[in-house]
Structures are given as C-alpha cells and as structure tokens.
Specification:
The protein is mainly alpha-helical and about 280 residues long. The protein has eleven helices and no strands. Helix 1 packs parallel to helix 4, helix 3 runs antiparallel to helix 5 and helix 10 runs antiparallel to helix 11. The chain binds fe (ii) ion (FE2) (2 copies).
Length: about 280
C-alpha cells in the first residue's frame, strides 16, 4: 500500500471510525470502593491534569475541524474530538463520584494555528500513551486499585491507542500529499516533534511534582514502586505497546521512533545495572 494514497486514507479513516465503541461514561460499572482504595484513588495527583488535558484536546480538535475539507478526514477527526470530550466527561464523573478534591484550575486557553496545535497534541498523545501503557500495566499487576476500575481505564487506553495509530497515519498522509513525504524528512520531523512533546511533558511533570504529589509520592506510590525500576518500566512500555499495536491492521503505520529509542535505552540501562551488580559482587567477595 502506498502511504499518502487514497487507499491509505480510506484504510486509516475507516478502521478508526469502524472501531468506535458505544458507551456513556456515567453508565460504566463504577465500583463501590472500600476506604483504603478510595483513599488511594483520591491521593493520585493527576486527575485534574488528566481532566484538563482531555477537555483541552476536545477544544483543540473542534478548533481544527473547520480547516479540514476532505469529508472522510473530517468525519474521523470529528469522531476523535467526540472521544476526547467523552474522556473529559469520564474524568469529570470519576472526580465527582469518588469525591476527589480539585483546585478548580481552568484548562489552558487555545492559541496559535489550530492545525499545528492538533499536530503538537498528536505527538504528545503518542508519548503519553507509550508511557501510560507501561505504567498502567505495572499498577494493574500490583493491584494498586480494584480491577473494575482498571477495566474502565483500559477502555480509555484502548481509545488512545486508536488515536495514536490514526495520528501517525494522518500525519504521514498529510506530509506526502503536501510533497514532504520522503521517509528521511518524515523521520526528522518526528524527532523534532517528539522533542517538543517531551519538553511539554517534563513541564507538566515538574508542575505536578511541585504542587500536590508529595503526599502521594511519600505513601501510596510505594505500593507499586517497591519493585519499580527503570528497566521494568521501559520493558513493560515496550511489551504493552507491542501487544496493543498488534491488534491493528498491519498495513497501517504505527509509532516507530519511541519503541526504537526505548529499546536502545533498555540496552543501556541493562548494561549499566549488570555492570553495577558485578562491581558489587567483587566488593562483597
Ligand atoms: Fe483522550
Ligand atoms: Fe486521545
């Protein structure tokens, strides 16, 4: 299949549209939580950030829609906007239903070119999802929260996986149709855009660490951080990403740069920890 062709467009739009799942966040089977689980859920520091990110995502997509002239691309992007708005409702419901405290901070205002905002958002989603897949698996395995809640969040992650596959195909299609489709150019453009996404992510993590996560970090996080290591995180991200991506049509493009970088990072971290453990053995003997 030729990337950038009509067939490619039909395939990535149709597979996205056809895999839509019908549900209302308020009607999902939200479990009744025991005191310990409720306390743990309430201390997680990022619910408000997640809510604002989803609300801003819906707004960014709505602002971009009028610039799309192709009816099929319009339908697919509009559907993503609807799903992001539904994610916003899901976090709103979660916050209200479980009495999670928020600071009432308003979502960031939109600025700049709507298409560039959609592109920045897409790369950001690829990065967030790759990390999110691994962290989610580690938290789920450690029974950090009751399984029915993980089932609900899994639905959301599955939709994010669909969004990133749609995005990498959409951006390749757009670049090819604008004459910027050479693989090397597309590769350089992703390196640049992922760099920007990583910078934004570090900003968010920094703010969150400063504001409200001390209580969480000091107590609750240890439940799943006890056996936590960088090696474990990277390998879970890689495995979960491969598992989720294997469910998509193999003719579609998938995010490539992050798994490649993560594999290199994993080799480095593993070599470093093996070197450290050999040094420790020598000292002990
Ligand atoms: Fe979302
Ligand atoms: Fe998304």
């Amino acid at each position: 299949m030729k990337i950038g062709s009509e067939f490619h467009k039909e395939l990535f739009c149709r597979s996205f549209i056809d895999s839509y799942i019908q549900y209302q966040p308020e009607q999902l089977p939200w479990p009744k939580l025991e005191a310990v689980a409720l306390d743990r859920l309430r201390k997680i520091p990022f619910w408000e950030e997640a809510l604002n990110t989803e609300l801003a995502a819906g707004a960014k997509i709505n602002a971009y829609l009028p610039m799309i002239s192709d009816p099929l691309l319009y339908e697919a992007v509009a559907l993503q906007g609807e799903e992001e708005a539904r994610h916003g409702r899901l976090f709103q419901f979660l916050i209200q239903h479980y009495g999670i405290e928020t600071s009432g901070q308003a979502p960031a205002q939109l600025s700049g070119n709507p298409e560039q905002a959609f592109i920045d958002f897409g790369y950001g989603e690829c990065l967030d999802s790759f990390l999110g897949f691994g962290l989610f698996k580690i938290a789920r395995q450690s029974d950090f929260l009751p399984e029915p809640l993980f089932k609900i969040f899994d639905l959301l992650l599955q939709e994010e996986a669909r969004h990133i596959v749609f995005f990498v195909n959409w951006i390749a299609y757009v670049q090819v149709s604008r004459g910027r489709g050479a693989k090397v150019l597309r590769g350089l453009s992703s390196v640049w855009n992922y760099g920007r996404a990583a910078q934004r992510m570090m900003g968010v993590v920094g703010n969150s660490a400063q504001s409200n996560s001390q209580d969480f970090a000091a107590t609750e996080a240890s439940v799943f951080l006890d056996n936590f290591s960088l090696e474990l995180l990277i390998s879970e991200c890689l495995m979960e990403n491969a598992r989720r991506m294997s469910e998509f049509d193999s003719r579609l493009l998938q995010p490539q740069l992050l798994p490649v970088l993560a594999k290199s990072a994993l080799r480095l971290v593993t070599a470093f920890s093996q070197h450290n453990s050999r040094s420790n053995e020598k000292i002990a003997s």
